[in-house]
Amino acid sequence: MFIYNIKINGSKVFKTLFFIITLIVILIAIVVCCKIFFGAKKSGSSVDYVPQDHVSKISASNYTNILKTVHDDIDDYVGVKINFTGYVYRVLDFNENQFVLARDMIVSSNYQSVIVGFLCEADNAKDFADETWVEVTGEITKGDYHGPMPIVKITEIKKVDRPTEEYVYPPDDSYIPTAGIL
């Protein structure tokens, strides 16, 4: 019968395990950093991964979230095509080809509202009277109206009936856009 006497040096085992675990954590961190930095370069523009004929539909439920997102980061959404409904609203200092495609946003429990919307430009904008409900399709561009602002260059506009969901609500934290995609 053989009896083995094994002596384990706890300090060396701990140091070896600590070294191996530290090495694994460092390798994982390097891989994650490479994915983040090199992956971001590949997806630099929405044009790279969104088909050019794709049109994002904006509804009453996501209207203010998208409006806020585009205003906050205009450059990421330049060139994105959108389709949405609202009413024509003009301010005195607009050009004759400009209007806001507006919605009334409820801001209090007693239904007080403010007007929100995208500034739009269309060659035939003067053909549509104020408070006319229209559906537009257009492309987001970067323009200037008292500072940088997204402007929707309208490619298609048509008169529609007042929708059943005519009011919109303030943006919430549940909407998380992916850069360049609405």
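Above is the first protein from milestone M3; the second protein from the same milestone is given next.
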Amino acid sequence: MISENSLSCPVDFVSVNENKVRVIALHVFVLSIVILLNPHWASIGLLAVDFFLRTFRLNKFSPFAISAAGITRVLTLGFKPVDQGPKRFAAGVGLTFSLAMLATYFANYTTATLILTATITVFSFLESFLSFCAGCYVYTILLRVFKTNESPKG
């Protein structure tokens, strides 16, 4: 049961390095700023591909994860364990947003593309600079919405 004030986070029981996750979020933040300044399908596509790879546990192919691993190692940021579940869920939300960005870009809905990009920009800023993952909040809201919409059994 979900109380009104508690968060429910997806849990994988697999630890990942929060420092590396924050560097990946910095990559997303920078690319999102580039997209806001000059929207182009290739930049949005790179974002979507990277979110796809990380959502489906293909991090060894993710350009952002590869780069973040190198940066984390060079800067000797160390390993700060955090559960992978909320981060993967957030990557799935990012994938959804970036696919919507591609769709709105190709449909010439520039304002919608920029709003979606601004949303990703804010979330990636929060993760990268403040270590605030919105994934648990989105997940909790979704649980409440679907729990509210369930039909009574019996």
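Note on the second protein: The beta strands are 15-17, 81-83.
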